[in-house]
Amino acid sequence: MGNAQSPPSDPRYASSSRAFTQKELEDLRTLFKSLAAQSQSNGDYVSLPVFQSYFGLDGPLGERMFDLVTQQRRDKKLAFEDLVIAKAAYEKGTTDEIDQFIFRILDVSGDNILGRSDLESVLIEIFNNLLSIKDSEVRSSSRQDIVNVFLNVATFSKHEEGCTEEAMSFEDFRSWCTHLPSVRKLLGSLLTPPDSGRPGSQVPHLLHSDAIDSDIFLLRKEYAWHIVGALSQHEVEAWKLLYHSALNGLSFNTFLGNISNHEGPTVLIIKDKEGCIYGGYASQPWERHAEFYGDMKSFVFQLNPKASIYRPTGSNNNLQWCAVNFTSEDIPNGIGFGGRVNHFGLFLSANFDQGHTFSCSTFGSPCLSKSSRISPEVIECWGVTTAAQAGIQGRNEGVKGTILERYKEDRNMLKMVGLANSTE
């Protein structure tokens, strides 16, 4: 059923309904009837409170979405035809149509000016409600500080007459989403029920010993959510702490030893003495090589003072670098990402006491810190694993394993440093 303001003969409804299969339309009709019944509207419409409760959209973001879905009629009544028209544009449209819809969602003030205050409101709602990261989990820095990290990468190039706040253009918005793929994923799935695995809402479980004070970690939940925007679903489940310099010391050998038995991807994070936080996602295990290796799943990122992800551009295959115990100056010992030898996108020397970061074409990334020469203050590494694997590892926590298992770990370490053959 529809109200008089959105009749079934509306040409937008007729064209929008063709974007769905008959089964999809029937499912939408069933959903609408259920929500309309909860709205006590005799089946005519869905109310704002019921809409917000079902889609988990409280606050300004939910009100703005409801306003757009009801075609800005201001009558607080969502008809079935409204739902079909909105979902067709928002979920079935072209990339441009979907981006335009998201662009309008972000303007929570509804004044046709997408300013910094609009984005701030949306980000606060994302962290507090959509990701359930409450203020009580904020540690040394405030919620405003973490919001600013995501705002600092935004550009506001529009200047509206009579408006004191600079505005974001559509091109600015698209650039912002390129740097923050998690934001784009989540904002593109708000009409998906939250209990159905809404894309962009996943935060990996961060696994570590209960004896470790989590306040020492560089990897906050908001940062983890930011990084997983560039990953597939199975890489989001659980991340296990493999190395932390505050616990293990700034030691390359200890780092290699701790990660030698992890065969999956890793997330390397660095905080330097300038206070900047950044790192890289290594899709392949860290193994001894005399040249670049890896695949196009690797990327580098910034976390503070701004959050940004830089994925491979395809300009070259210089993804990962791991050189151990080489004597040639042409093969610098250490680990790194992108760029070229001695001019990496990100590099840590084998002493873990220095490194560098330059702009590089591999990822289209800038210098990740305030200066190209870096002095690490904190280094930590997380191993990407599945929930099932994490459960097995969790039950065996603190047990080094059988003699054969310990021998295998030792062998992996020897292989890493290039000494395995000398023991045979």
From TrEMBL:
It comes from the Eukaryota. PROSITE patterns: EF_HAND_1 (PS00018), TLDC (PS51886). The keyword Calcium applies. Keywords: Calcium. Residues 217-385 form the TLDc domain. Pfam families: TLD. SMART domains: TLDc (SM00584). The keyword Calcium applies. Gene3D superfamilies: EF-hand. This is TLDc domain-containing protein. It comes from Acacia crassicarpa. The lineage of its organism: Eukaryota, Viridiplantae, Streptophyta, Embryophyta, Tracheophyta.
